[in-house]
Amino acid sequence: MEYDERAEQLEREAEKMKQESERVSGRIDKSRSDWESKQADQQVPGAQSDPLAKEDREDEEDESKEEDE
Q1: Which of the residues 4, 19, 20, 52 has an alpha carbon 20 to 30 A from that of 68?
Q2: Structure confidence by residue, pLDDT tens digits, 52-62
Q3: End-to-end CA distance of the chain, in Å?
Q4: Rounded to two decimals, what is the model's pTM?
Q5: Mind listing the pLDDT tens digit for each residue in 12-36?
Q6: Strand, coil or helix: what is 37?
């Protein structure tokens, strides 16, 4: 395989990867938007954040920061 052929092959692969990345990014954005709308809807069970769970996570983060110091 000549260098020019290999370069063209790699360019095609890079373009496919770019397109796939954009597709995945779009799905992530859509999923994030959907999740945020569900969190705002009181009728969706389990979607609202639990204030106690948030406090627990913050406490764990504080403890891990203290351990790092």
Answers
A1: 52
A2: 666 666 777 77
A3: 55
A4: 0.57
A5: 999 999 999 999 999 999 999 999 9
A6: helix
Count Cβ neighbours within 10 Å for each residue of 22-39 and write b for 16 or more, e otherwise: eeeeeeeeeeeeeeeeee
Residue in 40, 58, 57 with CA at minimum distance from that of residue 48: 40
- pLDDT score recorded for residue 51: 66
Helix (H) or strand (E) holding 26: helix 3-40
- Rounded to the nearest angstrom, the gap between the alpha carbon of residue 26 and the centroid of all alpha carbons in its chain is 11
Taken as a whole, the chain contains a residue count of 69
Cα distances (Å, whole numbers) of residue 57 to 17, 36, 40: 36, 20, 21
Q: Does the pLDDT value for residue 49 go beyond 90?
A: no
Tokens 């994030």 -> residue: 32
